[in-house]
Amino acid sequence: MNLVIDSMCVWHGAREAVRGVSVGAAAGRIVAVIGRNGSGKSSLVRAIAGLHAGPRSGAALWQGRDLARMTAVDRARSVAYVAQRPLVAADFTAREVIALAGSVVPRTADRLERAIDALAVRELVDRPFAALSGGEQQRVVLARALAQHDLGGLLVLDEPFNAMDLAEQHRVAGALQCLAGAGSLVLVVLHDLALADALAHDVWWMEAGRLRASGPRNGVLRESDLAEGFGVAFERLDGTLRPIVAPRCEPATD
Fold first, then answer.
1. Which of 140, 165, 198, 249 is the most exposed place for a label (fewest CB within 10 A)?
2. pTM confidence score
3. Is 195 within 8 Å of 169 (Cβ atoms)?
4. What CATH architecture applies to the domain 3-243?
C-alpha cells in the first residue's frame, strides 16, 4: 500500500471527529470517501494531507513517510489538496490562483498551461477569481492542484464536484481517471453515491467518526447496506447505482 492510515484519531476541541481509523490504498486508484454529514470525512482527509491544526494521533504514511511530519516543500511534492470551499482572500485572477501551485515548489509555465487545458479553464484565466461561479472557481482550484501535483503522487479532494454542472463534472471526472491511470492515488470525498459508484475503484465509508466499511466499490456500495446506512432506498438500473430520492406515487383508482 502506498498510503497507510494507522489508528488515526482527530479532535475538534473536545469532540473526537475521527476515531481510530486504519485503512490503506494503492497508487493508480481512485478512492471515494463517503458517509453522512458529520461522519468525519473531511476531518479524515485533512488529517491525511497533514493540514489538521488541532489534536490528532495515529499516522498517515505516504510511501513510508508521515505526511504530518514532512516539511512544507516535501509535502507539496507529495500531496496536493483541494478544500470543499475554495477561499482566495487576495484579488487574484484565475491564472494567478493556478500559478499558486508554484508558491512552494517551482512549477514551469508549460506545466501551468497543461493544467489549464486539462480542466478546460482557458476562457476563465484572465477573469477575477471572485467573479467566477462556484463551479468555475472549483475547476480553477482543481487546475491549481493539478499543476502542483506530480504524477504518482497523492491528490486529496474534498467534494470537488460542488456547484458543477454535468459538463464540468464530466471534464473533472475524466481528468481524475487520467491521473489514476498514470499512477497517482486520488482520494476524493463524495456525497453523490451514484458518482462514487461510477468513478471510484475503492470506497471508504465513514460513520460517526469510524470506518464502517472499506474495499472495492462493488463490495461496499451494495443497495441494502446503503439503504440501512443512509436511510434512502437504492436500486441498480442496467448496472448503474442510483438513489430513489422521491416517493413513487401510484395512480389513483376509483
1. 249
2. 0.92
3. yes
4. 3-Layer(aba) Sandwich (3.40)
